[in-house]
Amino acid sequence: MEKKPHFKPELLVVVVFGILQNLVQQASADFHSPLIKYLPGFQGPLPFRLTTGYVGVDESDDVQLFYYFVESQTNPRDDPLILWMTGGPGCSTITAFAYEFGPVYFEQVEYNGTLPTLILNPHTWTKVANILFLDLPVGTGFSYAKTSIASQSNDTQACAQALQFLKKWFMSHPQFLANPFYVGGDSYAGIFVPVITQMISHVNEAKIGPEQPINLKGYLLGNPTAFPSEINFRYTFAHGMGIISDELYESLRRNCGLDYQKSDIDNAECSQNKAAYEECRSGLFKPQILEKNCNDGYPLSSYWSNDENVQKALHIRKGSIGTWVRCKKELLFEKVILDTRSYHANLSKKGYRSLIYSGDHDMVVPFQSTQAWIRGLNYSIIDDWRPWIVEGQYAGYTRTYSNKMTFATVKGAGHTAPEYKPAECYAMFNRWLLEEPL
Fold first, then answer.
1. Which terminal CB of the chain, N or C, has fewer other CB atoms within 10 Å?
2. Same domain, 277 and 305
């Protein structure tokens, strides 16, 4: 099988400079909406400041990226600003906004045909941070393209468009340029986050853009995709969780080689081992193996986001998309950046902080695979493996490295961690922002 070329980090400089060459002289094309004081489904006025909008990027602004911006409920002018993206690729950031750590939750009741109810999230990260939730790449959520060509993208283009988005967004929100800035995301956004972070770093170093550079401090990732062979660690995870036997695990290692997913391994023993593994695993819910196996646990977001009054409140442009779906499977997107480990290494050398966390019951991106690529960075440990505690209980385990990287597992959490353990993840996030030990 022909391998796709690996996109080299050093080429980002060329990409970034080309993109921004004419951008810095342009006025913002941001559709900057007024403050949203009420949301359908939420009783009473919103007790937080929410705005939404579009930012046009690429040639002739053919790509329109949609965002939700929630200001910090503590001190928005000084608190950190987080750019957050959900994975997929193609999953709307409403996932983070209303299921993970955003300001509201959908009340989890059986759907009765009426508009889903929104309730406050007592563990929202917006208590201590400004969060810019971005629908990326184009075609995700409410982000859309004006032409058929613009609707096609890949990892490199999506990251470059995110950078353009930021530059234009800051033009219309200059009051946030001095805030400590972090890039964040989960799942497949594990590809986007380190690349975008490096792009911002390059632009800051080259002094391209506003006179005041983005105050980049680091990045954070939850249950992140990072390199191709991480899928192999599902076997390690399954063995450790008692899903497969010792004998089957050893047979998989022996007969399928180190890379269990290689397409050129087709011997009978390996095929039999894989079939046995699938029989043991197929009835499990991979995002959280302790949960009931279900196809879609997020229908309320579709009922809510497709409501005409909701879209009017969010200032959605009529006719810009068809039916809204939380995770768009038919996205016109190509995966071209397959391994981000070199980006993490480069960012560490530049002194940026990072928080990497994993739900320890996630079988989609097992915590063992995340541990493996972090270990491969070969940085010395300054705070060795230990439990971290919330309200007197073990919330997970953590380790801190000399490259300013903190790794944490979240006990009992799945894919992704804040959805399953919101109180613990809020404590983790807040402590990390304050540069305190978890």
1. N
2. no
Residue 219 confidence (pLDDT): 98
Place of tokens 């990892």: 155
The tokens for 313 are 């409140």
Residue 286: what residue type? K
Check whether 5 has a pLDDT greater than 50: no
For residue 258, give the 3-state DSSP assignment.
coil
Q: Exactly one of 143, 153, 187, 358 is catalytic; name it.
A: 187
Assess contact for 206 and 17: CB atoms under 8 A.
Answer: yes
How many percent of the chain have pLDDT more than 90? 82
338's torsion region: left (phi>0), alpha (psi -120 to 50) or beta?
A: alpha
Rounded to whole angstroms, what are the CA distances from 348 to 194, 352, 401? 11, 6, 10
Alpha helices in 64-211 (DSSP H): 94-95, 155-172, 189-206
* Same domain (yes/no): 273, 194: no
Q: Are strands 104-106 and 216-222 parallel, antiparallel or unpaired?
A: unpaired
d(CA 121, CA 99): 9
Domain that holds residue 369: 9-228+298-433
Most confident segment among 249-258, 291-300, 350-359: 350-359
- Strand pairing class (63-70; 81-85): unpaired
Q: Tokens 């071209």 belong to which residue?
A: 336
427 token code pair: 């404590």
Average pLDDT on 345-354 reads: 96
Q: Is 239 in contact with 246 (CB distance < 8 Å)?
A: yes
Q: Which of 416, 296, 401 is nearest to 364 (CA)?
A: 416
Q: How far is Cα 35 from Cα 38, in angstroms, rounded to an integer?
A: 9
pTM over 0.70: yes
415 is catalytic: yes
Q: For the residues 412-436, what does the mean pLDDT come to?
A: 97
Residue 317 belongs to a domain: yes
Q: What is the DSSP letter of 249?
A: H
- How many residues make up the chain in this entry? 438
State how far the Cα of 326 lies from the Cα of 301, in Å rounded to an integer.
7
Same domain, yes or no: 151 and 257: no
User: Distance between CA 1 and CA 12 in Å, rounded?
Assistant: 27
Asked whether the predicted pLDDT for residue 236 surpasses 70, the reply is yes
The single residue listed with the structure tokens 């089957």 is: 248
Clarify whether 362 is annotated catalytic.
Answer: yes
Q: How many domains does the chain have?
A: 2
Q: Kindly state whether residues 158 and 126 are assigned to the same domain.
A: yes
Q: Which of 79, 123, 362, 369 is catalytic?
A: 362
User: Would residue 307 show up in a list of annotated catalytic residues for this protein?
Assistant: no
